[in-house]
Amino acid sequence: MRSSPCRSRRRSKEPTVSCAPAFARALLREAVDAEERRALNAELRRYGNNPPPLDLARALEERRNPLAERVRRCIETFRFPFVVNQTRLRADLELGEQMESAARRRLGLRLDYVGYVDTDDTVWNALRVGRPLLVESPGTKASRNIEKIARRLLAIDQGKHRRRPLPDVPADTHHDVLEVDRGATDEEIRRAYKRAKELYAPSALACYGLFDAAGLARLRARLDEAHDVLLDPARRRPYELSVFPVVAEPVVEAEEERQRPNVPAPVITPETDFTGGLLRAVRESQGIALKDVGGVTKIGIGYLRAIEDEDFASLPALVYVRGFLVEVAKFLKLDPQHVSRTYVRRVQRWQEERERLA
């Protein structure tokens, strides 16, 4: 069991990571023939045998080496499940997602955080008597943690495990650095900035072995710049126009959506339970495009789409979902409290079911 995907040697000048050798092996396995495998081996040795994957890809791209495409494809498909071991505090439980973000930023890899194992003296006792923990002490905290991890690993093998969604934004933009959508509200940007500053603090455990002091300072400066630009309307709009490509086709589709005859309004009673599909039907019956809702409510399009699709895993904490639903209901001239109450019940039932299966 791996307690961390990224460990460093304290005495080395440059940080080294234990998931880099795994990536190198995966990269060599994907070589189409022996000649390409030799070429990849040569490039790996050129950059120190186990270079950070993102550094390797960028170096090959700068030299216009055709192997860069192979490295990029491997980065996109690479999987590295990991476990955080011996957790004690609530902050330890958040470490897994922090490590996912830090590894993506520095290595370019998306790691799979599959769970944690609490500190538990029964583990020591099981080792002492030489018996498996789940046999010796099946009901303890550590045993239950391991069972959850096993179920998640099986879900990954069966393709049922849902990874933490990422914003659909261009790489290396201010939105990407803060991990927010293009339509993020000011409050969402402030929360993302606070989380990122804590994650990339000089003493942050999740960054250990990934960044040197200079690299961490540069990243923190980028966070400050992203925060300042996205919270200044006079700077945010020109910036977004410069980094988000203007595509004519979706605009045409939006215009066509407005011009379509309104569909019949659904029947709503005081006993109606609001679902994502019902909210979509109400919106379409009024001839309103989803981007118009986002423009008025200032809710990100990704969140609005997740509400209508009932993609509950992509939604934020319930307190924010309630606020989103109230704003959407007001915009659609519905009863905000009734919409919020009935929809949130569906989210809560989904959360309870997920916890039960976990």
Fold and architecture overview:
Among the domains are: 174-243, Helix Hairpins (Orthogonal Bundle); 261-357, lambda repressor-like DNA-binding domains (434 Repressor (Amino-terminal Domain), Orthogonal Bundle), CATH 1.10.260. The longest helix has 22 residues, at 336-357. The chain is globular and about 65 Å long. The protein has a two-stranded parallel sheet with strand order 1-2. The chain has helices at residues 19-29, 34-46, 53-62, 67-77, 90-93, 95-107, 121-129, 133-136, 141-157, 174-178, 186-199, 213-230, 233-243, 248-259, 276-285, 290-297, 301-309, 318-331, 336-357, and strands at 81-87, 112-118. With 358 residues, it is mainly alpha-helical. The protein contains 19 helices and 2 strands. Helix 15 (276-285) packs across helix 17. The model is unreliable at 1-17 and 247-259 (pLDDT under 50).
The helix/strand class is mainly alpha
Please tell me the CATH architecture of the domain at 261-357 by its name.
Orthogonal Bundle
Provide the spatial order of strands within the biggest beta sheet: 1-2
Order of helices and strands: HHHHEHHEHHHHHHHHHHHHH
Assigned CATH superfamily of the domain at 261-357: lambda repressor-like DNA-binding domains
Extract low-pLDDT stretches. Answer: 1-17, 247-259
How many DSSP-defined strands? 2
The biggest beta sheet, please? 2 strands, parallel
Please work out how many helical segments DSSP would assign: 19
CATH topology assignment of the domain at 261-357: 434 Repressor (Amino-terminal Domain)
On the 0-100 scale, what is the average pLDDT? 84
The helicity comes to: 55-70%
Tell me the β content.
Answer: under 5%
- The rough form would be described as globular
Q: Which CATH top level class of the domain at 261-357 fits?
A: Mainly Alpha
